[in-house]
Design brief:
single chain, alpha+beta, Structural Genomics Hypothetical 15.5 Kd Protein In mrcA-pckA Intergenic Region, Chain A, Alpha-Beta Plaits, 3 domains, nine-stranded mixed beta sheet, three-stranded antiparallel beta sheet, 6 helices, globular
Length: 247
């Protein structure tokens, strides 16, 4: 018989994809969380993993109001906080940069910048699809350690690849002493590779290429799960539409 113990409700909610732990605590404080139909009385409360956790309509309405933004990040912008004089990608989220051809029914509101954070890194020398979200559920989907969402990149390289380099890129390399998950890597033309990964270690693709004799000279993320960059121009953004899903 497996031993089971009670777990903090906020942790269970995050594991079940209901919201982030921080959001869970905020909802519990407002009395918006129920376990088996009973309002959770206080922060730090615990429950059995098999108990049913539900959110009241106020919490669900707040989640619905949260936005997720898709940005085509240009080279020269950092994904997160400003550093070393470089501008953060969020500075591009303005009314002027909203993609007009996106036909979004959502108009830009400065309130959408509050709590907006990148869900996955894209380094300063890289470009392409960057997701910024106010929704902890989406952030967890994309960047949790157990995420299986694919990220697709087009990578221009120089140099001469090692004899078994392509096979090693697909499976067999390690970074920081840890083996990498299997990837899908193939040549698109004589100087461009296509990478599909299910993880996102710091500068992972560049470091993988270095191990097989290649240097990355251009890197563009074109897909995260079901969401593709498409014809979104560099420096412009659009809202994730109702019905669009990463999984």
């Amino acid at each position: 018989m497996l031993f089971m113990e009670k777990i903090r409700i906020s942790k269970l909610m995050a594991e079940q994809g209901l919201c982030s732990r921080r959001e869970a605590d905020a909802y519990i404080e407002r009395g918006w969380v129920r376990v088996d139909g009973v309002v959770v009385p206080e922060l730090g409360s615990k429950a059995w993993p098999n108990q049913k956790i539900t959110l009241d309509k106020q919490a669900r309405a707040r989640q619905t109001a949260r936005v997720t933004i898709l940005l085509n990040k240009p080279v020269g912008y950092v994904s997160g906080q400003a550093e070393q004089g470089y501008r953060p990608a969020v500075s591009l989220i303005t009314a002027a940069n909203q993609y007009r051809a996106g036909k979004s029914v959502t108009r830009f509101d400065p309130a959408h910048l509050r709590g907006l954070a990148p869900a996955g890194r894209l380094d300063i020398d890289s470009q392409g699809l960057l997701v910024l979200t106010q929704d902890g559920r989406i952030a967890r989907q994309l960047i949790s350690d157990d995420s299986d969402i694919e990220k697709e990149y087009l990578v221009r390289v120089t140099g001469k690849i090692a004899g078994n380099g392509l096979a090693m890129l697909n499976h067999g390399l390690s970074l920081d002493g840890q083996p990498l998950r299997p990837a899908e890597v193939s040549w698109q033309n004589e100087d461009q590779l296509r990478f599909i990964l299910q993880e996102g270690k710091k500068r992972q693709i560049r470091r993988m290429c270095e191990q097989v004799g290649l240097k990355v000279v251009g890197l563009k993320r074109v897909r995260m799960g079901r969401i593709v960059l498409g014809d979104l121009p560099p420096g412009q953004w659009r809202y994730l539409k109702e019905g669009e899903r990463f999984l």
